[in-house]
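USER: For my understanding, would you kindly supply a protein sequence with its structure tokens?

ASSISTANT:
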Amino acid sequence: MKSIELSLEAQNLGVDGLLLTVPAYNKPTQQGLIYHFNKIADSVNIPCILYNVPGRTSLNMEAETTLKLSLHENIIGIKEASSDLSQITKIISNTSESDFRVWSGNDDETFSIMALGGFGVVSVASNIIGNQIKTMMGSILEGNIESAANHHKELLPLFQALFWITNPILIKRALNISGYNVGGLRLPMIDSKEFDREFSELLSKYEIDITKT
């Protein structure tokens, strides 16, 4: 299986862990997903994080499927980008006594998911406002939900703007505008200059808080 070959190759290269995305296009059954991910996790001895992103794969991995996979010792968590808070709540509630972790897969849902007991976020916006996101998350962990909510509301317009066009088009534009030369896009991604003025104006309202090295 190609997924196993690539996972073993990554392990041999020394990666710390694997992010395993729900397969795109072929729409396997939920039982097929369990078999698929368990086979990969069986083949390696590094941590695996599942990634459920139905908006890109056309298939949602259901909560019951994730819960069954959470029993595998090498599967340590999931990046959840289904935007289904009922589903995400079910996963969090049924794994709260284990070491299985749930990360938000969407910046604009991090506040809600962490307030429900989620572990954190695999973030797009942190490429430009990482410290501000860290502050919001810290407020949640300290139990200061009002402060976290205020941070969330301040950052929400930028979270949403980064997805006016398919990611990663606008995050790369934001970095380039801010003086960090991250280059262009590879086809079929193109920067159409759509929302150019609006995006630049909105971006100017935020402090870009990354450090050049």
Summary: The two ends are 39 Å apart (CA to CA). The chain has a mean pLDDT of 96. The chain has ten helices and five strands. The first strand starts at residue 18 and ends at 21.
